[in-house]
Amino acid sequence: MTSNSTASIQHEIYQVVALIPRGKVATYGQIAALAGFPRHARLVGYALNRQLAPDSELPWHRVINAQGRLSLHKLDMNAENLQRFKLEQEGIQFVNDRIDLKQYRWQP
DNA sequence: TTAGTGACGTCCC
DNA sequence: AGGGACGCCACTA
């Protein structure tokens, strides 16, 4: 690992993401704040990138950006298609490639 | 060490 | 509405 502090941060991020219920979504910034690291939205992306595996227990697909859009295409367009598929399977509706956060945002 | 980068967010126009 | 300019901060070369 590059540093043990980031390892613990990642651990906190995973714990929060694991709490997102089926059929709901959260933003990167929301996850960072809930994990106790405000303004670290980008770190959430880095952390999830390491968990990007088909057999991952983590509901990484329920994390989207503050615009209600998917951001994964910059890295892996194929993975983004999977993310959208998983979300739609949970009953989340896309309107013009966008999710209505007022309706679907997770509120702990 | 420094500079560039990025699964982001907010502000401004 | 939607796009651009910054701000942010860990990571990488």
From TrEMBL:
All copies of domain Methylated-DNA-[protein]-cysteine S-methyltransferase DNA binding, residue ranges: 9-92
Keywords: DNA damage
Pfam families xrefs: DNA_binding_1
GO molecular function: catalytic activity
Superkingdom of source: Bacteria
Alphabetized CDD domains for the sequence: ATase
Keyword Metal-binding: no
Alphabetical list of InterPro entries matching this protein: ATL_DNA_repair, MethylDNA_cys_MeTrfase_DNA-bd, MethylDNA_cys_MeTrfase_DNAb, WH-like_DNA-bd_sf
GO biological process: DNA repair
KW DNA damage (keyword) present: yes
PANTHER family according to UniProt: 6-O-METHYLGUANINE DNA METHYLTRANSFERASE, ALKYLTRANSFERASE-LIKE PROTEIN 1
Protein name: MGMT family protein
Species: Rhizobium hidalgonense
